[in-house]
Each structure stands twice: as structure tokens, then as C-alpha cells.
TrEMBL record:
Main localization, broad class: membrane
PROSITE patterns: PROKAR_LIPOPROTEIN
GO CC annotation terms, alphabetical: plasma membrane
Origin superkingdom: Bacteria
Pfam family, one: Bmp
Residue stretches making up the ABC transporter substrate-binding protein PnrA-like domain: 27-309
Protein name in the entry: Transcriptional activator protein Med
Family named by the database record: Belongs to the BMP lipoprotein family.
Localization terms from the record: Cell membrane
UniProt KW Membrane keyword: yes
Organism the protein comes from: Bacillus sonorensis L12
Membrane topology of this protein: Lipid-anchor
């Protein structure tokens, strides 16, 4: 078992990419572009909270624009931000990858920040939330609680690391468990997500992981009506029903934005990819439902602490040491 656990940690741990030369300069003003709204209580709201944290810590003017979901709108918004004196811009989603990379050369005094994207220039940084570990612990919890031996994942895209992690965690608990994965294709397509959930329910899944920030709340509300279980996503969703939401895989986007702002203000923010994981305090597991037995909760918490202690995103020495 000790060796097996060491192998699991080796699976979870990934190497972060090397960054490029830092762009020096203190924060002057900060801008945020959101493809939808800051009022969705999930993804958009977290981005806005990150902007407010930066405003509070650095006492700078901040600006945001909602519904910026096409190239022309992005270019107009960036131009407006530049005129206001903004020198740090967050594009709150992968939607901004192409245009940020294409226009960054025209704005050498602005640093652009993306999420889960490719950053191709020295003044473009992409934040990546490595959700494989949180998915793993969420999958362990789902498999532990399942009575039918069937789980469901409602993901948005196949590249989401939490999907693979969830499956690995579930099979770590029960190698024979069945995990059905469906892809919604859009982060906010609630109608499609609920329809796919209904199919999972009919197939016997009794724990479902809606890994999409725009549709997870509607899906969990339907799960609640059906008396089944869910694993929350992005935020702690125990308030949706402590006897329904077994735990949540949380991404503190607002804290990540503050950390990025701090690096930029110090002149240490590099272009390229910036990976955040559980060790950074940006990703964590939420509160456990009281229906999850205490001994299992303690087991999960112990494994998380072991994972946090791994240094430099790499196991040291013999895997048996884990």
C-alpha cells in the first residue's frame, strides 16, 4: 500500500514550465475582462473578487468590462484600458489567448494575464490551475460514498486535469467502479449539462461531479431534487445542501490574481506559464458533508498534507518513502 500511494503521488505531481524574462514595473492601474458577467456567483464573481483584492492591497484604480467575448471587443477594451493608464490586464478565461498574444507586442508597457492558455510573449502570463490532485481527492470521496458503483463527470473540455484525477481517485478506492464522462463543450450551457446529467442518472450514477463553473449550480440543484450526491466545483458549494454536496474542489482564483499582482508589483512576474496547485494554497478541498464518515475525512486530510509536503512539484527519492 505504501508503494502504491507513492505511485499515486508520482502520477499527481507535474513539472511546471520555465518562464521568461520578467517585465519590470509597479502596478499603476489594473483591468479585468470577463466573457460573461461578474454576477454569476462562480467563475466571473471570483475574478471580480480578485480585482477587488488587488484594489484593496495596492490602493490602485481598477476597471472591469463584462461581455467581452470577441476579438473586436477585446481590442477596444484594451485600448480603453491603456488610455486610462492600466498596466496589468487580466483576461478571465482561455477565450483571450489568441488576441492577447497577437496584440501584446503593441503594448510593451502592459502585462497581460490569461487563464489555462498558451502565453507566447514576455509580457503575457498564463495562469494554470493544476486540478488533477483536487480531482483525485474528489474522486476518492465520490467512490467512497457511492452505493451503485457508478459515478458521473460533467466536464466542459477534455483537457481539464481534474477529470483524469477524479477517475484515478475513484479507482484508487474501488478499481471496479464505473465512471461515465460527458463533455458539455461550453462552461455555461446549463440546459445541455442538465440533459446530460439526466442520462447519467438513468444509467445509475449516484454521485456526479459537474466540473463546469457556469452550469454546476443548476446541475447540483437537480441532483438535490433527485436525492443523489454531488462533488462541488470552483467554490465551496456546501451551502447548496450539506447532505448533497459531499465536498468541493475549490480554485481560489481571487487569491491567484493577488499573487500574480504581487509578483508584477515586485518586477518578478515572468512571461509563460504560471502553475498553481494545492501547495500554493490556491487549490483546496472544501468542507465535507456530515454524511461522510469521520475516519474517511481524516484519511483524505492526511493524504492532502502528505501531498503538500512534496517539494518542487517532484517526488524525492524512492516512491516507497511516501
Amino acid at each position: 500500500m505504501v508503494y502504491r500511494l507513492g505511485v499515486i503521488f508520482l502520477i499527481l505531481l507535474v513539472m511546471s514550465g520555465c518562464g521568461q524574462t520578467p517585465l519590470n514595473g509597479k502596478i499603476e492601474k489594473v483591468g479585468l475582462l470577463v466573457p460573461d458577467t461578474i454576477s454569476d456567483q462562480v467563475w466571473g464573481t471570483k475574478g471580480y473578487k480578485g480585482l477587488l483584492r488587488i484594489q484593496s492591497v495596492y490602493n490602485v484604480d481598477v476597471y472591469y468590462k463584462e461581455g467581452i467575448d470577441n476579438e473586436a471587443a477585446v481590442k477596444m477594451a484594451v485600448e480603453d484600458f491603456q488610455k486610462k493608464g492600466v498596466n496589468l490586464i487580466f483576461g478571465h478565461g482561455s477565450e483571450y489567448e489568441k488576441v492577447f498574444n497577437s496584440i501584446s507586442g503593441n503594448y510593451p508597457d502592459i502585462h497581460f494575464v490569461l487563464v489555462n492558455s498558451k502565453a507566447e510573449h514576455k509580457n503575457v502570463t498564463s495562469i494554470t490551475f493544476d486540478g488533477r490532485a483536487m480531482g483525485f481527492f474528489g474522486g476518492m470521496t465520490a467512490a467512497h460514498q457511492s452505493k451503485s458503483g457508478k459515478l458521473g463527470i460533467l466536464a466542459t473540455h477534455s483537457w481539464q486535469p481534474e477529470v483524469k484525477g477524479f477517475i484515478e481517485g475513484a479507482k484508487y478506492i474501488n478499481p471496479d467502479i464505473k465512471v461515465k464522462t460527458e463533455y458539455v463543450g461550453q462552461w455555461d450551457d446549463s440546459e445541455k449539462a442538465v440533459a446530460k446529467y439526466e442520462k447519467m442518472k438513468k444509467a445509475g450514477a449516484d454521485v456526479v461531479y459537474p466540473a463546469g463553473d457556469g452550469y454546476n449550480v443548476p446541475v447540483i440543484e437537480q441532483i438535490k431534487k433527485d436525492g443523489l450526491y454531488a462533488i462541488g466545483y470552483v467554490s465551496d458549494q456546501s451551502e447548496l445542501g450539506e447532505n448533497i454536496v459531499l465536498t468541493s474542489t475549490i480554485q481560489h482564483v481571487d487569491e491567484a490574481y493577488e499573487l500574480i499582482a504581487d509578483e508584477f508589483n515586485k518586477g518578478t512576474l515572468k512571461g509563460g506559464r504560471r502553475i498553481f496547485d494545492i501547495q500554493d494554497g490556491v487549490i483546496e478541498m472544501g468542507e465535507f458533508s456530515p454524511i461522510v464518515d469521520q475516519s474517511f475525512q481524516e484519511k483524505i486530510k492526511g493524504l492532502i498534507e502528505q501531498y503538500k509536503k512534496q517539494e518542487n512539484c517532484q517526488m524525492r527519492g524512492d516512491p516507497d518513502a511516501a
